[in-house]
Amino acid sequence: MSVPLPVVATGQQIGAGWSPALSVVKSLAALVEAERIGGEAVHWLADEDHDRLEVASVVGYEGPRLRRHRFHFDAPPGTATGWLPWTEAHQHEAASLWGEVPEARGTLRDHAMVLGAPLWSRGIRAFSPTDPALRSGIQEELERWRSLDLEKNLVAQADRLRQAGTPSPLDPSTQSAWFSLDPATGQRKRLEPGSKVPAGHWLSPGAALRPLMQSLLLPVAAVVLGPSERAYWRLAEPLWERVGLGAPRIVPRPSIIVMPMGAKLALPQLDALKRGDWSAFAKPSSAMPSGKLPLLEADEAWGAALGHRFHAELARTRTRLEKLDRRLARDSAATTLGFDPEHLRQRLFPFGLDQERAIPGLFWLRDGALLDRILDALRQGGDLHLVEAP
């Protein structure tokens, strides 16, 4: 009997256009870690979550500019994301936002599977926890977990974390630990303590317990997690022993920033670019426009009122000249960076967010050469990488 390979897992709630792009980075980082330990990379499609606002909110292009957009899904509130319909109308809507989009019909899960094909072809396995063949086999064990009253452990751990100054983004005193999920309709509803799961429905763990179910379904040796995920995974720390599972090793998710071809930027310069500090890139110059303003003082013979007005006019002139300073610094920075600095800032930090948090992963998934460059960067190790677009 063959022994299954150790799994390096990661995942994301499935979103339209594989939003956000950091989910692509997580999968590729899992692949790199799996190569290192001789294991298998698995992308967990979190398709029983039901945060519709998150999966429907995306950005797309309107001409050369990015704009926010929200898809509408004709399904009752509380429908898990894997059951949300993805129709021909959604397909046309997506194409108008993003250009070429691989064809998918059926559900948002189908859309995610089709878009993720470049990852699956590189050896990452897509895994849906809502596969009936898998889910029916663990219901008895999940019922046993529910009988252990794990909620008390979660609340106590949340209190410990809060007292230690590291509060969790999840509050288990208000957020349910258990839901029921109707596999026919995708309806997911909160389960109050002591209530029964309706006949034919699945027991569905909340976010704080999902790490446990992941290791119940897969031989997880390590998980690639972002900062907020690592924070709520800490809630489960006291529970692994209670349910009889070993906690996987946590691998922090690296970050990737994709630069336009020809841009000349180094990692230490990122903060200055994000702040809009063009002087950090400008060549030194003593010929700044504001430097040409002479040091002038009001004549006492003018009187206080005229003297005050004189200094106010000087201040306004200085403000206008300082705007010219910034323009000169921007022009000089463009020479240094090989790219207009403001346009580069908008590319790397759209809407003031890190690029991988704002744009859909589709932009990267449809460029195989870019995915290979990202993989090469991740194999070098490190927390943050600048990757030039092919």
Q: What's a quick, concise take on this entry?
A:
By secondary structure, the chain is of the alpha/beta class.
The rough form would be described as elongated
Low-confidence stretches: none
CATH fold type of the largest domain: Rossmann fold
Measured between the Cα atoms of the first and last residue, the distance is: 45 Å
| Residue share in β-strands | 15-25%
Q: In DSSP terms, counting alpha (H) and pi (I) runs of 4 or more, how many helices?
A: 17
Helix content: 40-55%
What is the average per-residue confidence, as pLDDT, rounded to a whole number? 93
CATH class placement of the largest domain: Alpha Beta
Radius of gyration: 27 Å
- The neighbouring-strand order within the major sheet is 7-2-1-11-12
Total strand segments: 14
| Major β-sheet annotation | 5 strands, parallel
CATH architecture of the largest domain: 3-Layer(aba) Sandwich
Any idea how many domains? 2
- Tell me the structural class: alpha/beta
Written account of the structure:
The chain has 390 residues and is an alpha/beta fold. The protein folds into 2 domains: 7-256, 3-Layer(aba) Sandwich (Rossmann fold); 264-338, no CATH class. Helices cover 41% and strands 16% of the residues. It is built from 17 helices and 14 strands. It has a 5-stranded parallel sheet. Strands 9-8-10 form a 3-stranded antiparallel sheet. A hairpin with a 2-residue loop joins strand 3 and strand 4. Helix 1 packs across helix 17. The protein is elongated, with a radius of gyration of 27 Å. The model has no long low-confidence stretch (mean pLDDT 93).
